[in-house]
Amino acid sequence: MIQEERVKHLNSNTIQDGRYVLYWMQASQRTFCNHALEYAILMANRYELPVVAYFGLTADYPEATERSYLFLVEGLVDVEADLQKRNITFALRLEDPSTGVRELAKECALMIVDRGYQRLQREWRSKVSESVDCPVIQVESNVVVPIETASPKEEYSAGTFRPKYQRVLDAFLEPLPKNEAALSFRGSISSIDIKNPRNVLDEIQIDRSVRPVNWLHGGSKEARRRLVKFITDKLDRFGDLRNDPSEDYLSCMSPYLHFGQISPLEIALEVLDTGSAGAESFLEELLVRRELSMNFVYYNEDYDTIRCLPNWAMTTLEAHSTDPREHVYSLAEFESAETHDPYWNAAQSEMMKTGKMHGYMRMYWGKKILEWSSSPKLAYTIALHLNNKYELDGRDPNGYAGVAWCFGKHDRAWGERPIYGKVRYMSSKGLERKFAIDKYVKKMSA
Questions:
Q1: Edge-first strand listing for the sheet containing 108-113
Q2: Three state DSSP letters for 20-72
Q3: Which pTM was predicted?
Q4: What is the per-residue pLDDT for 316?
Q5: Could you give the domains of the chain?
Q6: 285 touches 381 (CB < 8 A)
């Protein structure tokens, strides 16, 4: 079922006399549980046309590194294979997506595009919809509840967002039927060979300062394999152990969600079907918290700067900006994990080595950057830079919201203290009291 709230016409153009329906895949890099793809197939069958799917791989996506590029291209290998099975031509090209898709639009009857929430993604879609002759229809598939349906404005916190979200959630927790393309495209469209993802990366000039990881690989098949393992081995105890960095009870779904290689709807339906004791806690993270971050990025134009913070947080941080700091570190010292705190260093090392950081440690990590930087503004810049550079799920609404939370976003004012003002404080003693934190440190230093 493709709910009408997911569908938005980005221009008022009429259907053209084209050779195919064009699906511009960018944010939803998968073939299963992809509302945009299914909508493209339905439209193609209605107009008795084939479907052509296009992905533009640009070498200069902001803050993307070799680590993130390899994960992305590994996912596209699955996409190409799955589309071939479904009678759909896939065109992958090394070019700016907004340029490449306009070229293909010259021969299409209409264009379907998935939805992204960040600034560049929205600019691409806006620019294209204004410059092509065909209709451009956006179909939202990377959230369970469409952004504007969940809330028409930026929400203050999970507490204000949750009741609005839950009132409409059930209407969107519906499985998505799979459709078959009736016709295949008989023409010729150029596309690069992606059988070996590393060879693809050798052909483009990208930031190679952050090397790929070996323990985690991109793609929908791998995402589903990990989801099944998580549900089988860890979901029951997720509610109790998800915050413990000395244990491994996280799902590892965030990189796959970031690249759109798995659908949050698919995950939610699988988890709900288990009846597990951990389902409620997990769905709070997957649905309410994750989609609150989408709400934040969509409605707040300053989502990637400290200006996104609520007035109370900005005011209190400014009032304490000149408070004495016992420790002050530079970006280079933070990046090299050269602080006095073994717990913080372990968290930074985890991120650099593995491309992920335990969620609880990421909160501690961000709080301490605030405490150990010469100003809140510099701290915010450093935290966002490191998160986006090393995390496989960096440059994502969850990442932007997570960093902002460390500085007071989506939170309330607490008791006032030096440096933090009324922003929530976290301490190393708290880690020692709650967890076997030395076990975490040992694991990260291995």
A1: 7-9, 136-139, 108-113, 20-24, 51-56, 89-93
A2: EEEEECCCCCCCCCCHHHHHHHHHHHHCCCCEEEEEECCCCCCCCEHHHHHHH
A3: 0.98
A4: 98
A5: 1-141 (3.40.50.620), 143-176+218-299 (1.25.40.80), 306-445 (1.10.579.10)
A6: no
